[in-house]
């Protein structure tokens, strides 16, 4: 092997190892609001491969296969990192004239460094798995109470009645604050660890459907009584729209401009919700047409995006459909 080839192999190996280490650090310890390319691409590639595989399959079978998107994405990411470490170490061994077999039989300093790099990747990957598991648990646990109270988007009047029953702004403000915090957590964790976006719901109700329930509640309050609406009502709407917008972009989805948004809520059920909220103690500050227009203006910012994510990622492919 010529000297030029050895230098090129050594430089390539060193660069490869540095890139792997930077990718691990970026993905696990400093994800921010945009994770590493390796994390994003492996998660999206696994999802696309599975999506192509399930076309034409029965819903139950397709759902079981789609459940593998997240595990396959994680396995692909681990494989990329480990192959990068092994490839980089092999190129450095070639550059120094050390047979790869010798690194296994007589590790020495180079072999020890390679083992330490593999251990570093394994520890970092385990740390990431723990964080992803915790984030997934937080996302799904928050749905349990909401779904028990309001199983369908058309039932937002139920949760509003529970919040408004005492005509206490503090009560509904506290509930909306909890949901706003949930949206902020979902946005941060799903952008930091993209595989979470492709992790399907544990129960019958997806987090996107729960998002519509929560945001419809806030939108109804603002459309009926903008002057009375507590502070956290608009905070919730802002957090929810930002969350769904950024996650749509992260998944590579576009949502065309639409007219009235009827995903799970038709105009007649809107009138029922208004009457229900009025009976619970919320005094309308607008007439019906103004309320409906304001409600649709707000809903257009989140309902189409929620539906796009849900359908594109197959969250509800084997779940109960909207009535």
Structure commentary:
The chain is mainly alpha-helical. The chain folds into two domains: 3-128, no CATH class; 139-312, no CATH class. 72% of the residues lie in helices and 0% in strands. It has helices at residues 3-29, 37-53, 59-66, 69-95, 100-105, 108-149, 156-164, 169-192, 207-224, 231-250, 267-280, 288-299, 303-312. Helix 1 (3-29) packs parallel to helix 6 (108-149). The radius of gyration is 25 Å and the shape is elongated. The N and C termini lie far apart (70 Å). Keywords: Membrane, Transmembrane, Transmembrane helix. The chain crosses the membrane at residues 6-29, 74-96, 108-130.
Count of alpha and pi helical runs: 13
Count of spatially separate domains: 2
- Gyration radius, to the nearest Å? 25 Å
How much β-strand is present in the residues?
under 5%
Instruction: State the order of secondary-structure elements, H for helix, E for strand.
Output: HHHHHHHHHHHHH
Number of DSSP strand runs: 0
**Gap between N and C termini, in Å?**
70 Å
C-alpha geometry: elongated
Task: Report the structural category.
Answer: mainly alpha
Q: Helical residue percent?
A: over 70%
Biggest sheet statistics: none
Q: Look at the structure and give the mean pLDDT.
A: 83
Which consecutive residue ranges, at least 5 long each, have pLDDT under 50?
A: none
Keywords: Membrane, Transmembrane, Transmembrane helix
Transmembrane segments: 6-29, 74-96, 108-130
């Amino acid at each position: 092997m010529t000297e030029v080839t050895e230098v090129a192999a050594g430089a390539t190996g060193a660069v490869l190892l540095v890139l792997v280490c930077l990718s691990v650090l970026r993905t696990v310890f400093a994800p921010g609001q945009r994770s590493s390319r390796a994390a994003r691409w492996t998660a999206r590639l696994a999802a696309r491969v599975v999506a192509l595989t399930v076309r034409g399959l029965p819903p139950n079978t397709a759902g079981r296969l789609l459940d593998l998107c997240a595990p396959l994405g994680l396995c692909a990411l681990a494989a990329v990192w480990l192959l990068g470490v092994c490839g980089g170490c092999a190129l450095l061994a070639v550059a120094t004239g050390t047979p790869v077999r010798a690194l296994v039989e007589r590790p020495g300093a180079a072999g020890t460094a390679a083992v330490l790099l593999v251990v570093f990747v394994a520890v970092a990957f385990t740390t990431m798995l723990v964080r992803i598991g915790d984030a997934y648990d937080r996302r799904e646990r928050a749905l349990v109470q909401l779904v028990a109270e309001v199983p369908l988007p058309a039932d937002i009047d139920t949760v509003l009645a529970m919040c408004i029953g005492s005509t206490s702004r503090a009560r509904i403000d506290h509930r909306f604050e909890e949901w706003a915090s949930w949206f902020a957590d979902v946005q941060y964790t799903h952008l930091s660890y993209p595989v979470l976006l492709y992790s399907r719901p544990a129960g019958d109700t997806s987090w996107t459907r729960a998002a519509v329930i929560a945001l419809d509640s806030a939108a109804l309050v603002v459309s009926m009584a903008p002057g009375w609406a507590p502070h956290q009502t608009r905070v919730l709407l802002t957090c929810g729209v930002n969350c769904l917008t950024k996650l749509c972009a992260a998944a590579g989805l576009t949502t065309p401009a639409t007219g009235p948004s009827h995903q799970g809520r038709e105009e007649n059920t809107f009138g029922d919700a208004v009457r229900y909220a009025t009976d619970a103690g919320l005094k309308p500050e607008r007439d019906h047409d103004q309320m409906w227009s304001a409600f649709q203006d707000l809903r257009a910012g989140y309902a189409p995006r929620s539906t796009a994510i849900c359908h594109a990622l197959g969250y509800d492919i084997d779940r109960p459909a909207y009535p």
